[in-house]
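Cross-posting from the modeling subforum.

Setting up a comparison between two proteins and wanted a second pair of eyes on the formatting. Protein 1 (sequence, then structure tokens):
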Amino acid sequence: MLEKIREGSQGVVAKTILILVILSFAFAGVSSYLGSNTGVPAAIVNGIEIPETELEQAFQNERASLKQQYGEMFDALSADDNYMQSIKASVLDRLVANTLVDQAASELGLRVSDEQIKQAIFSEPAFQTDGQFDNDRYQAVLRQLNYQPITFRNMMHVDMTRRQLLNALLGSDFVLDGEAKQLAEVQNQTRDIRYIAVDAMPFLATANVTTEDAKAYYDSNLTQFNSPEQVSLEYVELNVNDIAKDVLVDDAEISQNYEENQAQYQTPEKRLASHIYAASGDDAADKAKLEAIAARIAAGEDFAELAKTESEDQFSAEQGGQIDWFEQGVMDPAFDEALFGLEKGQVSGVVKGEFGFHIIKLVDIQLGAVAAFDDVKDKIIAQVKEKKALDIFYGLQTKLADTSYEIPDTLLDTANAVKKEVQTTGLFTRDNPPANLNKPALVKAAFSDQVLTSGMNSDVIELEPNHVVVIRVKQHLDAGTLSFDKVEMNIVQRLKQDKANETAREKAAGYMTQLKAGDFALADAQLITVSKLGRFNQDIDAAIANKAFKMPAPEAGAVSIDTAALGSGYAVVVLDKVNAAETIDVSALQSVKEGLARQYGQADYRAVIDSLKAKAKIEYPVAE
């Protein structure tokens, strides 16, 4: 988890940190802090429920990660229900694995102390300035991530306990110097080869393919020429962003909005809080402890000194209990209500919060203030334009829905009603809709009975918030086999290429026979020599290099000879010698060892999870 923060903290955009940490937490099994357990659970692992809300949160985080990774291509992938269900199943499998690891750690009595958590955070570079822990930076990073210190500490506890078990199970893996050296030597050996490539392209001109040949191929391979169902659409589109471009706003409206809505432009009141915290897990003991401390404060003892010695939130304790500035509604309800019910300098009684008990002191108050007109003018203009555009949009959307429903066999009247034009698409399949309409709901509607079979206008389809369309079919092609006349030219080209390749193969086979007989004086070609060819050499065709490293080492005084299929043609490869790896430096050897260790660790982790699953009772309830 801290690795994710460290990576994120080096970026310039806080969103990067947020995404990385949320992804880490989502799969650390801690979303129980963020949601409630309601309804049928997604799974029950040895009696412990994984709530559907936890699965849904993890799944949405995985979707966000995939979208960031694949970009626009993910829109097409996400339209495939089977694909998305497989992703969701893999996410649930990870949550089950995490739960099994947590249960195993609990059974073994593994614990992580507050001091260990504290040291992990203190030593984290993301929270340091000039190599030293910086509490202000720590608080700032957590604010960027929208986490409170207490919540973050609890998440750290879960994460570190789990890692403690996994490190104990997997940390015993080691790679022998000998095996790493052996693998490094194999990877870094070189080969001396000669080769000749026979290009098929020159033989294309003489390759003869008749219509009968093409038809015979077509008849024997009809499944290759299946055509998926296709449709082209007419559609009318409404987008609030397009409407907003034409909205005009005058100065009088802006000034009036500012005067009437000054509460919107007022910076909220902030309060600086300190607390003394107890969260041992024993509510009665925690409450009793803080009640005793409250009595000492009432008797005149210093709040900050007591926080330093008695508070279980060690980070704030070092600051005399001081946490941070808070706006109303940021902390959990009980803490928030207590803090905003105090006068400056006043101390609360014992407050039961979401994760423990607090005594809260209001250290200071920063009153809110109304922002100057010039500072918020651009914001007001945007808001007024957006409101006007939305009012227009909602009115047009109603007309769009009513007219397309009342006159379902054309979109012309609908377009006229909303003062838009009827747009069209080319033919597309379920897998390649136009980019501007590439939404699962639209694709589903485009191939629905209402649109295809009945020929009616669709219902209003939302592409994005305040961005809608109504569609109707323009042309529909059923799935079927493409006719021969439409694919004949492609078949002819394919068969010509096959014949050219066959001619190249025969010529290469002739070269190989001659070379194996020991005659290297080729009449119409010359072998190309490559000395010390590396495994990943990019200067020659990859097929030739791959073949060279698959061929057996030649016996003394002999060579190995074989052919390799190229993209267009064939090659004859002569392996003259296998060269042992030259001196392998320490860093290269260490890299090989680390790679092997990762492979071993991954295999061991899978084995541990498989073993835990085999012994566990795992249920996947189905909602009735």
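Protein 2 (same layout):
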Amino acid sequence: MSGARRKGATDNESYAGGGMGMDVAPGLDIDVLLDDPQTRIVVCCGSGGVGKTTTAAALGVRAAERGRKVVVLTIDPARRLAQSMGIDALDNIPRRVEGVGDGNGGELHAMMLDMKRTFDEFVEAHADPERARAILANPFYQSLSAGFAGTQEYMAMEKLGQLRARDEWDLIIVDTPPSRSALDFLDAPKRLGSFLDGKFIKVLMAPAKVGGKAGMKFLNVGVSMMTGTVSKVLGGQLMRDVQTFAAAMDTMFGGFRTRAEATYRLLQAPGTAFLVVAAPERDALREAAYFVERLAADQMPLAGLVLNRVHGSGAEQLSAERALAAAEILSLTGDPADPADPDDALANAVEGSDPAKNDAGAENLADGGFVDPPSGNAQARNPSAADPDVSPTSADTSAERLAAGLLRLHAERMQVLGREQRTHDRFTALHPEVPVAQVAALPGDVHDLAGLRAIGDRLAVPLERTKRAG
């Protein structure tokens, strides 16, 4: 199979859809990635605000319509994603998305991580009912499960492990939590697991484990000095809550770090593919570069980079400089102090060609008319030729102002394209081996399945931009 990884190939090479030049990244073939039955998990990661959630949902729709049984795990609480899939609301239970994949045996399910509920499920699964009730009612646990640093990332990976263990879907697509740094996604679960399994929590458990007078003696001898200091900082009631929580969680300690490590190994497995999602902006691509390097250091399989919201133009051959020069000439047209022929000057500015060559290939236009591509008819672009009541001078001036405005807009667009291309080129220079899919920007927000399909089409047939000189 074309999508299968060949022996000795890097993950970058597996889904690369083209050759690699000196400064051009290989293309990322999304359909090969999604069609590969060995691909069981796709993780969309990157900094916030770059379109990770939309990309994950679009990949899910496309994979399901190509015959895969897919579940998309999203972290984004925005209702618009659920609405775009035709679901009233997403929760911690996978919900079937109707009208996707019905014709070819595929299915799409979607869910949104409920961080606290996932933590509750973890407790209920690993503690007896009485101890589970004590843990769930503990104030420290309630704070921990609702927003402790790293909990969201840990629970996202816990939910991923649960979904993979159920084996009900042949493809799981994960939208990683939004965070200040994309690296938090890899680091936070380990940090939380280390905290919950660490020496501090175990010291707090010691009095409860020893019990009775011996426990009090132990506490008075050694632990009281530490706990007394912590109580002054945190407050006595919070300290008691933490100790009660630690005692109730006694049988579960050791499991947190173990499960975090197991999920880490799952992310390193050959059936997992990471997609780094970014926008063509300096900060987003800098974060993407960091993530690419971190994935490589941790030996995690990188499929490629998805570059969202890339702008294009149907007239890239007209540079910003020439467009601005042409706009300036049009704004001076009709000025008696300007001795130059405005038509010849405009043609030179736009085409960058010799005036004599322009005269040889002139269109059948009246003086001061504009080219009409379908017919070459001056009347279609020159209102004064059709309406004798319109002053030729005022009509020409109005048309020239409009044309000058359009040329300036085009110049601004070309400057944006140039900035995006330079930013992309810097990333490619650092990581020329990473396959890239450039996704053309949509004119509006995605709010339905049709919009997700449009993003999927752009992912599968990425924007091709020729390398501009300079």
